[in-house]
Design brief:
Elements: E1 6-10, H1 21-35, E2 43-46, E3 50-54, H2 60-67, E4 75-83, H3 86-97, E5 104-111, H4 120-134, E6 138-139, E7 146-152, E8 156-160, E9 164-165, E10 177-181, H5 187-197, E11 201-208, H6 215-228, E12 235-241, H7 243-252, H8 258-276, E13 281-283, H9 296-303, E14 310-311, H10 319-328, H11 332-335, H12 342-345, H13 357-364, H14 369-377, E15 381-385
Parallel strand pairs: 5-6, 5-7, 10-11, 10-13, 11-12, 13-14
Antiparallel strand pairs: 1-3, 1-4, 2-3, 4-8, 4-9, 7-8, 12-15
Helix pairs in contact: 3-4, 7-8, 8-9, 8-14
């Protein structure tokens, strides 16, 4: 029985980064090591276009499950490492096929070592000839049941029959950090996923309104952060007490503008936390037209209070697409738990969908919101969440 001994990891989109390539590879390797930290037997090696992990008897299923969640990996394969010797390559390929089901095959060779005496097409023919003479399998170059993949390096050759799709994107953290407004709903955890996929680290802020919102609502948000943190190793979550600000908004502002003013205050708070924590932008899980505060007119009025870029990665997504992704990343069941956040518990009956900037400013001038903003920021609670299978690296 063939035993896979090495994982071969391909970079994919990283190859487009030119002069920054080495930096991207170092970050990807760092993220991989962090995600596999507790699998102590693994050994790592990186080259210009591959990362190799020597398995040393670690659990392959667990290894596969974790690697699938690491952004920056285009694909990976569990391989058998042999010497770059044609006869050994042929015999190993034949042995590997004994574990595979199918009637047709194709051999695909990449010769990274140009000094190897056989060209790629010659290796393909030699290996296929061995298989044809030793089995009942037939060649199908268009739609084979089995794809034998051979990568010839200078000293060793890596052989596999399966390519596993990775998460793609860029290594999380390579493109800076954002402050995400994380609610207890379906959308913002999905936004976190897509932000991380573009190589951006996500830090989060959540607004609670005790006693109107419960401890269960806060715990739900922290659980969502814990679930989605698998994609970057951990997540810092800031909890801001929004009660006093929220009550003052409802006391002094017209009810129809309450959500607009609330969102403007949240963005102000998020921006100040972002600056303090060296974030380069703010992010939200808003989807265009989904609720009153997510029209273009509302977004424009809300944006006005902030100098930082506001990233909205799912702004054009249909709700069903967001739900599908939430299910895929395992946040959906937690998101639909019946614990309301401060935006839903005080939802006005007739919120304005096309707010005016001048009216918003006039209503804000009816109370000393700056004092309340500073008070809210002086009592922020910060939590560090990481998935169960990864030890804290902070």
């Amino acid at each position: 029985m063939v035993v896979y001994d090495t994982v071969l990891i391909r970079y994919g989109e990283l190859s487009t980064k030119g002069k920054n390539r080495n930096q991207f590879i170092r970050k990807l390797l760092e993220n991989i090591k962090r995600a596999l930290k507790d699998l102590e037997k693994l050994e790592f090696k990186s080259t210009y276009d591959r990362i190799y992990i020597k398995i040393n008897g670690e659990n392959i299923e667990e290894l596969e499950n974790r690697l699938k969640k690491i952004f920056g990996i285009s694909s990976f394969s569990f391989t058998i490492k042999v010497k770059s010797d044609l006869e050994e390559i042929k015999s190993t390929c034949l042995e590997l096929l004994e574990n595979e089901k199918g009637e047709t095959f194709k051999v695909i060779t990449r010769r990274h070592d140009k000094n190897f005496m056989y060209r790629s097409d010659e290796i393909n023919r030699h290996v296929a000839g061995k298989i044809l003479s030793s089995t009942n399998l037939k060649v199908d170059v268009h739609n084979p049941d089995i794809k034998l993949q051979i990568e010839v390096q200078e000293e060793n050759t890596f052989i596999t029959s399966k390519k596993i799709e990775g998460a793609g994107g860029y290594p999380t953290g390579i493109n800076g950090k954002v402050m995400l407004l994380l609610s207890g709903g379906i959308d913002s955890p999905v936004a976190a996923y897509y932000i991380m996929k573009r190589g951006i680290e996500v830090e989060a802020v959540h607004f609670s309104s005790p006693p109107y919102t419960s401890q269960s609502a806060q715990d739900k948000v922290l659980e969502l952060a814990k679930i989605v943190s698998i994609y970057q190793g951990s997540m810092k979550v800031h909890i801001v007490n929004f009660t006093e600000l929220q009550m003052e908004i409802y006391a002094k502002c017209h009810e129809s503008y309450a959500i607009t003013i609330m969102r403007r205050m949240m963005v102000r708070l998020a921006e100040r936390l972002a600056i303090k924590n060296k974030c380069l932008a703010i992010a939200t899980g808003e989807s265009l037209g989904q609720v009153a505060s997510q029209t273009l007119e509302s977004m424009s009025v809300i944006n006005e209070v902030c100098k930082m870029p506001i990233i909205r990665p799912i702004v054009t997504f249909d709700k069903l697409d967001i739900i599908d992704k939430a299910k895929e990343i395992n946040t959906f069941e937690t998101s639909i738990l019946p614990f309301e956040d401060c935006c839903t518990i005080f939802k006005p009956k007739n919120p304005v969908t096309k707010p005016r900037l001048d009216k918003s400013i006039n209503m804000e001038n009816l109370f000393d919101y700056e004092l309340l903003l500073e008070k809210a920021l002086s009592n922020v609670e910060t939590f560090y969440k990481q998935p169960k299978e990864i030890d804290s690296f902070l």
